[in-house]
Amino acid sequence: IDPTDMGDGLAQILHLPARPVLAALAGARMTSLMAADWKALERARRARGVGDASRIRSFLRGSFSLLVFALRRSGKLATTMEARGFGAAGRRTWARPSRLRAADAVLLLVAIALPSIALAVSVIAGTFALVGR
Question: Which segments of 1-133 does DSSP mark as H helices, in order?
Fold first, then answer.
């Protein structure tokens, strides 16, 4: 799903407040960047000849570096969004309207029907048990 379309839908169709919508939008965009950052870190370490013999050590070092990248990027993003007036009081205008279409309705029905059918079958079969029982 396109993060911008997701944000538009959350705000325009579900009428969620601006701050959680913008947080979800930023999170969705940053998630795709994390994979690219991880690959860039691996290539940079390989180019410098700093490869670790242990996969666990390499994973931990890479995870820490990725955390530092994410914190720096989130600080810049928060400042940029605030400077552009995201999350300000008042009504927002939208560059493109978001509407539910037939494909959206079908996906919603499938997303509700599959777990419902699975739950009904497990109850009928007598295998249903709540977690922790």
Answer: 3-12, 18-48, 55-83, 102-125
- CA 5, 10, 14, 15 torsion-angle sign: negative
As a whole number of angstroms, the distance between CA 35 and CA 107 comes to 27
pLDDT, one tens digit per residue, over 86-107 is 767 777 777 788 888 898 889 8
Pairwise CA distance, residues 28 & 1, whole Å:
9
| % the chain with pLDDT above 90 | 17
CB under 8 Å to 20, separation ≥6 — which residues? 10
Type of residue at 46: R
**6, 28 in Cβ contact below 8 A?**
yes
Q: What pTM was estimated for this model as a whole?
A: 0.59
Angle, to 10 degrees, between the axis of helix 55-83 and the axis of helix 18-48?
140
- CB-based contacts of 52: which residues, under 8 Å, 6+ apart? 58, 61
